[in-house]
Structures are given as C-alpha cells and as structure tokens.
Amino acid sequence: MNKGYQSLFKEGKDLNKKSSVERSARTIEEINEKIRNGDVQVLSVSEMKELVESSGVQVAFKDVDVITTGTFGAMCSSGAVINIGHADPPIKIEKAWINDVPVSHPGAAVDLYIGATQMSETQPFEYGGGHVIEDLIKGKEVELRATAYGTDCYPRTKLEVTLTKDDLNQFQMLNFRNGYQRYACATNGRDETIYTYMGKLLPKYRNSTYSGSGELNPLSNDPDYETIGLGTRIFLNGGVGYVIGEGTQHSPGNGFGTIMVKGDAKAMDPKFIRGATFTNYGTTLYNGIGIPIPILNEGIVHKVAVRDEDIYTNIVDYGVPRRDRPTLGTVNYKTLKSGRVTIDDRSVKVSSVSSLKKAYAISETLKEWIAEGRFYLTAPIERLPTDSVANPMRKPKGLAFVEDVVHDAVTCTEDEEIEEVARRLINRNINHLVVVDAEGKLSGIVTSWDVTKSIANGKGALSDFIVKDVHSASLNEPLETALRRMTEHNISALPVTDGEGRVTGIVTSEDISKLLGGGRFG
C-alpha cells in the first residue's frame, strides 16, 4: 500500500478508537429526524473539504450532519435481473437473446440476467448488455428471443416477443463489483498500440489513462467503512439503491475496496447510466453511484477531508499481458487530474476514462434529495470487511509462455553485405535474421524471402529492404498472446526483447506448432 494512502487509512482507524462519547455524538436517527423536519445540514463532499480547510474539524462537525459523494465510470461487473412473466403455453427458457445479445438463464423458467459485457452476436464490439439495460431504462422496446427443450409442464420450445420495462415483473440492477476505491493508472510499454478496459494505450508509454473520481469517491472518504455496509441506502443510476455487501475482488488492505449493489432499474434515470464500448475490447456499462456519509463523529470529519494529493495509485504497464504487471511508479489523483504524469523521466499525457462532471452532478443531486426530504439514511446492518484479500487463480493447466519456446536469435547489422546475410541464412538453416544496432537493440528483421527477392531485383544494400516496423514479444508473455499477434499481422516470427529493447531471442510459428503438436499447450 502506498505510504500516503496507508497513513490516511491508519489515521481513520486510530480516530475510530476515540471515546464512545464522541462516536455517539450524532446518530443516523437524529439526522433522519432533521431530514423530516427540513433542517438537515447537508453538504457535497467538495464543500465539506473546503469547510474543514477554512474553519477546522470541530466547526465542520458541529455544522454538518451529512455529506454526499459521487463516482461515474465503467463498471463491467454490472447487470440486471429481469422476470418476463409466463407465456401461454409456458416456456422453461434454456437460451435467450435480447436485441441479439445473449442473456443468461441462471434460475427458474423466465428469470434472466443481462450482463453488461455480453456482446451482440450481430454487432459485436458495438452493442451489448450495457446498451440493452440503458435502452430498457429509457423506455425503449427490445426484442426477446428464447429457445427451450420443452417439458410436460413447460411445453413451449420457442419464443419471440417485444418488451419494455413496463412489461417486466422485476427489473433489478444487480452489480457484483462497483465503486472501486481507486484504479491503477494504465500505460503501455510495448511497441504497438493495445486496447484495454482502460482504453486505447499507445506504444512506448506515449499516453496513459486512469479512472475513478479520487476525493469524490465514496469509499475513499470512508476508507475503513465506518458508515458503509450491508443495507446502506445509496444513489444508484439516478434512483435509490442499496449496498448488499462487499464487491467481488474486495481488497481493502491495498486500497482497492469494492461494493456490491442493487436497485430498482425501473426507477432509474438514463442521465446517470450509459451503455458503452471500449474499442477492440468490448462492451460495458457506466454506472453513477453516490453514497451519503453521515457525520457521526469528528473522526469521520478527518476522513472526508481527504484530498486528491493524499490518494495514491500505481502506474502500471498494461503492455505486459500477465496478472502481475510491472509497476513503473506511483502517482496521486491530483497529478492524474492535471493531465500529465511522469513515466521514465518523461512527461506523458494522462486522460480519464470516467466522468468527473457526472460524479459532481451525482453528489449535488443526492444533496438536493436529502435537503428536500426525498432521501433518508440507513445504518449498515453489517459493515464492509476490512480484512478481505483478493486471491489469484490457481495456475491453469496447459499454460505456456514465450520463454517455453524461445531460442537464440541469429542476428546481423544493417551495414552487412547481402551475400554474407544470405550465407548465414543458408548455413544456419533459418528463415529470419534479426537486425540489431551496436547495443544489441532491435532495429529490424530480414527474412530469406526478402533476401532472395532483393538479389533477384539487383538491390545492393541490406538497408534497402529491412523491415523496420517490427512486432516483438517478451519472455513472460503468454504464448497464446504472441500467436495472436502473429496471426493479426500475418507474420511468422517475433523477436524477443527485454525491457530495454535488447534482443534476447526469437520465437517462430514453427516453434509454436511443435509445442502444440507435442500436446503441452491446450
């Protein structure tokens, strides 16, 4: 955990050890009574931070009953449970599609779950489950298709019907991982552009992206979850929702807490939810979440005074396609929001894939609801755990990496004679020569076909036909990823380089075929 974040987290815990007199100085019941009477003192979290800085913790505690937070971003682990009612004759659905998006059938006959990341079979990477949910919330008609194997009590085997949200018995948003406490800052050290859930990342650390609202984020303002847990009433996509427990991969010790939430999607506002697509990655759903934090004691005031410069995250190289990616440094949210970060001593553009404007709007809207007596607070039945750990998967069977098939590369330099290069290809019985500079760094590649063609065409210099736009691989890269890169670019070999661009070997399609034929890779 970053030192700045760790000290903040510890401060919140220490403050919770204060006397029970302070902890019970204000109760949720008292705050709700003020909401009913119309004299509740509610501020957005941004206003609260300014008040603490201008007037101090004690004044802020005395003057404010509740503050409102907000975040708006892509939350892939989202979806909706729907019940479509029984047809006549009835059907026990086995497979189903809404607007050509496959939806899962996890329960009884006509209960379905629309997953945000499921993609349309006719418009993949353009339309998916997140768009279906948005369309339903907007009141649009959707087309449902379903098939079944037929039973004595559910004889129907096919179904086609047009539906709106008003036709559904239940339309409940059920998101099993939302509201991440923070996100890593993503960049890409590879020599090619990659497409991720953090957006498009240019090669050689030419850009970076981040997500999350920093000091506006609900969990960042209550990092030990004193007021957040099972049963906490929240703002969810313009409607009322509830925290129903810790989110999947909840890892508070590392500052990556998450929440699981639900809410009535029929009552949600399309202004605060958006189906979306990340280019060449897939579909998702942007959710808007706001959590009120009751100011029960001075310790909570200290926690909600956190600023972006106190909230740190790691800069991570997403160009390494492994679970544990290299960390290139740390950065705080103040720097992220400035638009520039430093990577390898270079100033690099950083952009957000979430919306701070929407996060502010959520905080302000929830503030209005409370001030107008339209939203009451609830005490959590059980607080979110602070000791959960997100464990990795066991190593899958049949997994292979580039290091399993890499062999020494035969190299040459750009100033060598063509005849010498041709002789080396023949003597070594190979099809690829890797071109390196004086430091052994990758500068190109030459194939036997290139040499043959150049000799036939009378070209005299190797530099006339070297391929300089070279795709490469790294030793710790999954072999499946390297094979996909060869297929995408219609090439038969990848030089293997280290982090400095020095050539350490080569992997060829022939190497991979031998491994596949040996049954070591499934």
Percent strand: 25-35%
The main β sheet shows up as: 9 strands, antiparallel
What value does the Rg take, in angstroms? Answer: 28 Å
State the secondary-structure class: alpha+beta
Mean pLDDT metric:
92
Query: What are the low-pLDDT stretches, counting only 5+ consecutive residues below 50?
Result: 1-24
Integer count of domains: 3
Number of strands: 31
Continuous helix count: 14
Distance between termini? 37 Å
- Helix amount, in percent? 10-25%
Overall geometry comes to globular
Structure, explained:
By secondary structure, the chain is α+β, with helices and mostly antiparallel strands. It has 3 domains: 3-74 and 179-383, no CATH class; 85-168, no CATH class; 402-517, Roll (CBS-domain), CATH 3.10.580. Helices cover 24% and strands 28% of the residues. Strands 3, 4, 7, 10, 16, 17, 18, 19 and 20 form a 9-stranded antiparallel beta sheet that branches. The two termini are 37 Å apart.
